[in-house]
Amino acid sequence: xxxxxxxxxSLDGTRDDATNARLERENxxxxxxxxxxxxxxxxxxxLIAIHRLAPAAGFEVLRxxxxxxxxxxxTVAETVIAWALGQPLPEPVGRQxxxxxxxxxxxxxxxxxxxxx
Length: 117
Fold this sequence. Notes:
Blueprint (H helix, E strand, L loop, with lengths): L16 H35 L3 H15 L3 H12 L6 H26 L1
Helix pairs in contact: 1-2, 1-3, 2-3, 2-4
């Protein structure tokens, strides 16, 4: 058994079944990662538009909601997108989202007060 990541080819130039299976798994994982990233970006956009948060703050809000509800980040993002499209937020997500947005809003207000004063 080899642990090499180099694709083995047969005499006719085709890959063996194990290599094809590995490449298909890696391709599926990459597609899933790209899709998840896109959903997170869309949810950040919702938070930017609705709550006037900076992009980094939007990500932090999603991350905090995920941590405090023990729900995966991409699932929280899907919930926020669905909410923007008219579906209700599940109670724990809504409560944690409100709290996280409030924390970010207070941080923004505090930073603006420091700049002015």
